[in-house]
Amino acid sequence: MGLLDIFVRKRASAHIARERLSLVLAHERAERMGNDVIARLKEELIAVICRHTAIDKDALNVTVEHRDSVEVLKVDLVLPEGGLRRAASRA
Amino acid sequence: MTRVVVVTSGKGGVGKTTTSASFASGLAMRGKKTAVIDFDIGLRNLDLILGCERRVVYDFINVIQGDAKLSQALVRDKRNDNLSILAASQTKDKDALKEDGVKAVFDELRDMGFDYIVCDSPAGIETGALLALRFADEALVVTNPEVSAVRDADRMLGIIDSKSLRAEQGLEPVKEHLVITRYVPKRANKGEMLGHADVQELLNIPILGVIPESEVVLECSNQGTPVILANGSPAARAYDDMVARFLGEDRPLNFLNGESAPFWKRLFGG
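ok -> C-alpha cells follow
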C-alpha cells in the first residue's frame, strides 16, 4: 500500500458513514417498534383485566428491562384498596 | 380535492424552507392553486426566501386567534397568481399554535379551492413540527448526505408513522418522499460523501429529488427568489424535475454525474 493509498482511503470515508448509520438506524427502529408493542400490550392487558376486576388505567405499568443478556417483560399492577376480591366485586 | 404536503427533516439547516419555496412555486407554475405556510413560529423566514417580507401584514397566529381573516393574511406571490403565502408570527409565543386552530385554517383553505397546502416545518420535534405534519397526506423528508441529517430524517419518518392523523386513525399512511439536498456528485462518486443510493437504502423511502450543491441557492436567498426560478442552473432544474415527479411525470435523476457547465459558460456566466 503506497502513501497515496493511505491518503485516498482517508478521504473516501462514505462507507464508514454508511456502516455507522445502518447500525444506529437499525437499533433505533427496533427500539421504536418495541415501544409500539408495549403500548399495544398494555392496552390489551388492561382490557382483559377489566373484564374481571375494576382497575385504574394508571395502575398498570408495563416495561421491558434488560438484565445481563436477557430481556424481561415486567407487568406491575397496583390493586385498589381491599385487594382483588374487593376489586372484583366492583367490576 | 386539497392535498396537504409537509416539508420536514428533524435537523435544521438542511434546506426545508428553500425546498418549500421551490416546491410550492413549482406547483403554482404548473397551474396548481397552492398555499405555503410557515410553521416556524417566532422564527419567520419563508417570507424572506420568497421575497414577500414587506407585504406581510397579518400572520398564521393572527388568523388562528381570530385577529384577522385568512383572506387578509394570505400574501399573493408577485410572480405567480396561483401561489399564496401565510407567514409565521414573529412575535407571538409558539404555544399559540393549536391543533384545532390549524385544522380550522386548513378547512378554510379547502373551501377556498386550494389544490395544495404546503407546510414548511420548523426543525426539531416539538409542537410546531408535530402540527406541521399532523394533517399531512404526503411528506417531503429533506436530508443532506451527512450522518446526523440522515439519522434525524429517520427519526422524523418514525414520528410521521406514529403521530400523524392518518397513522392515528389507521387511514392509508402518509406518502413519504425523500429529497436529498446539497449533493456533490463528484465527492459521492469518489466515496467521500454518502451517495444518493446509500441514503435511499438507509431511509428506505423513494427518492423524489436530488438537489446538487449550488452557489445559486445563496444568490436566490439574497434576492428573495425561489431557486426553481434560477433559469438554467442545475439546482433549479433539479427542483423542477422534483415537482414534475411529484405530479406523476417520469423523469430520470439528473445532475448526478458531476457534470460541470461548459468552459465558455463558466467563463462568461450563464
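The first helix of chain A runs from residue 3 to 11.
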